[in-house]
């Protein structure tokens, strides 16, 4: 079910690849949101805040791994465009060993130090115990979550966005059923929600692993000595390391922002963390379109076709802007209704609605930032995009801390908007400067050796 993006209609290829990608992302977030909705409606607002506070803590560890996986995905797409299938096989086997070892280390470290991290973040005492209980279970499932992301990256790099969609459909259905069983029938509370999430992650990762073994035998993971290639591994690390550093800094930045948010009290914490869950869901199409652009660009650069890569960017931007305008309209009109679906009070819903309306107007700017960054990443210009993201985050944190006393909780949304604007300016300027073309000849030669 792979997809060669180096030939055929650019617009049709982008759409056919992007639609399953968007559906996958929406369903992936849906099962996190389902957790929150069940928690809010059947356990209470304090438990809902506990789940919200826990997310940035888990992301600190997860983003480190996913940053490294991004370098792997870039190489997969370029090698696939260059028809270097043996390199994909060797890179996948080598990377699998490293990334899964890292996942188990993260799982153990997160489990041991979860309460220390929560205390450092000034987590409200009302939710500290429940947050710790939730994290203790969710961290156990980190290896399954990492395996899912690794398998998905391999499949997407070769143009298969449908198999990950089937996996997440299965996972989401199981998660929702188990959530209701564990919370409503067994009365396990927040512990039941965490257990349901972990079981669903394990099932989806195993499904993808089996699919790869059956549909793509050339990409099967092998532990034999001649299947390991450290040169390819270090090539992927060179691309993934800047993204990992950026993701790590972003995770720390999220914790710093969480620290600011926590000072506003549990009502604001509940409102903003819940709003972020919905915000993440609504902007997923924009992010997934950028992923499609990056993989399209990577395959065509691997095939030494820069003109087609640029055409993919132009048409990707068009799709992304249309989608962002539609999303903006929906969020502005239905923001409060989304919040109320989590079982929160009117006061909490009003705070969340204000956050939505402030951010949503600037979604087209976010679409442009992601599209240009995706093109640069597909061309291996990951150092610049990582620096751009770090600078944008630094601005966001700086504004949050300096203006919190003046703007109150509104500073969270306004600082995020400013970071989008800065990122869009930086990535667009880099693209227009053509400085990234210096990396292009090196990328193609590496992919076709």
TrEMBL record:
One MF annotation (Gene Ontology) recorded for this entry: antiporter activity
InterPro entries xref list: MATE_fam, MATE_MdtK, MdtK-like
GO cellular component, one term: plasma membrane
GO process annotations (BP): monoatomic ion transport
Keywords of this entry: Antiport, Cell membrane, Ion transport, Membrane, Transmembrane, Transmembrane helix, Transport
UniProt similarity note: Belongs to the multi antimicrobial extrusion (MATE) (TC 2.A.66.1) family.
PANTHER family associated with the record: FMN_FAD EXPORTER YEEO-RELATED, MULTIDRUG RESISTANCE PROTEIN NORM-RELATED
Protein's name according to its UniProt entry: Probable multidrug resistance protein NorM
Upper lineage: Bacteria, Bacillati, Bacillota, Clostridia, Peptostreptococcales
């Amino acid at each position: 079910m792979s997809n060669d993006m180096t030939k055929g209609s650019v617009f049709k290829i982008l759409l056919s690849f992007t639609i399953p990608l968007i559906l996958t992302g929406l369903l992936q977030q849906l099962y996190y949101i389902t957790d929150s909705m069940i928690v809010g409606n059947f356990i209470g607002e304090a438990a809902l805040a506990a789940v919200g506070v826990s997310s940035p803590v888990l992301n600190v560890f997860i983003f480190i791994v996913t940053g490294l996986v991004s370098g792997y995905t870039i190489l997969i797409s370029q090698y696939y465009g260059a028809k270097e299938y043996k390199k994909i096989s060797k890179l996948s086997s080598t990377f699998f060993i490293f990334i899964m070892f890292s996942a188990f280390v993260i799982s153990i470290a997160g489990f041991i130090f979860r309460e220390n991290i929560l205390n450092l973040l000034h987590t409200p005492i009302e939710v500290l115990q429940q947050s710790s209980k939730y994290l203790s279970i969710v961290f156990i499932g980190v290896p399954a979550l990492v395996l899912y992301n690794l398998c998905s990256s391999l499949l997407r790099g070769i143009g298969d966005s449908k198999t990950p969609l089937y996996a997440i459909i299965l996972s989401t259905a199981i998660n929702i059923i188990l959530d209701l069983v564990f919370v409503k029938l067994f009365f396990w509370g927040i512990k039941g929600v965490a257990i349901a999430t972990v079981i669903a992650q394990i099932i989806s990762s195993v499904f993808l692993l089996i699919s790869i073994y059956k549909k793509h035998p050339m990409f099967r993971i092998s532990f034999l000595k001649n299947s390991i290639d450290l040169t390819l591994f270090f090539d992927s690390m060179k691309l993934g390391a800047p993204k990992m550093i950026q993701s790590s800094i972003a995770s720390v930045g999220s914790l710093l922002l969480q620290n600011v948010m926590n000072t506003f009290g549990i009502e604001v914490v509940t409102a903003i963390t819940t709003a972020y869950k919905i915000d993440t869901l609504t902007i997923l199409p924009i992010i997934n379109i950028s992923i499609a652009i990056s993989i399209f660009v990577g395959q065509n650069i691997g095939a030494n076709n820069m003109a087609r890569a640029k055409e993919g960017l132009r048409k990707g931007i068009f799709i992304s802007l249309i989608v962002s305008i539609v999303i903006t309209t929906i969020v502005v009109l239905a923001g409060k209704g989304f919040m109320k679906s989590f079982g929160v009070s009117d006061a909490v819903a009003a705070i969340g609605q204000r956050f939505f309306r402030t951010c949503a107007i600037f979604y087209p700017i976010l679409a442009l930032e992601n599209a240009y960054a995706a093109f640069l990443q597909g061309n291996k210009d990951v150092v610049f995009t990582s620096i751009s993201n770090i600078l944008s985050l630094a601005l966001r944190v700086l504004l949050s801390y300096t203006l919190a006393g003046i703007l109150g909780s509104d500073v969270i949304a306004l600082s995020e908007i400013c970071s989008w604007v800065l990122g869009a300016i930086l990535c667009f300027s880099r693209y227009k400067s053509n400085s990234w073309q210096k990396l292009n000849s090196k990328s193609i030669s590496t992919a076709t050796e």
